[in-house]
Amino acid sequence: MKLLSLETQKEIEAEILELEEKDYEKIKKSRRFEFDWANEREHHVFKIVKAREENPEILGLISIVNIPEEFRIHVNLIENSKENKGKHKKIDRIAGCLLAFAAQVSFEKGYLGFTSLVPKTTLIELYVKKYGFTQYSRQLAIERQDAINLIQKYL
Questions:
Q1: Which domain holds residue 90?
Q2: How many other C-beta atoms can be found within 10 angstroms of the C-beta atom of residue 53?
Q3: Residue 11: CB partners within 8 Å, gap ≥ 6?
């Protein structure tokens, strides 16, 4: 998968890996993430990093929950590092890659890409327009063709 350096306009090869126990303390000490990711330990937590780097810096995180009785993957929490948020971010496509990864997990589980999340109110429009999610009250979801489109664009 490819991220985009906004400084050089060059693509950066990236990979998504399961978060290791040692990463939780590293995340907390770095102060580059607003949320307390230690609270997500009970879920499946993944990090996106630059590929083929020794001790790569964590660029973004996602916590997903498998809900088999509803045939969906739920994004419990997603966050870019502080330097990769907003108008002055250094690297683009981080959240898109993480969301596409969650949709891919949904397909692997046989859920046809059905992936949900409950965003901050201010981000609803972004998820709908940029990533193809559909709004169902406070919850957003993506499935089948929109999930395929997301995967093809970001992975």
A1: 2-154
A2: 11
A3: 2, 3, 4, 5
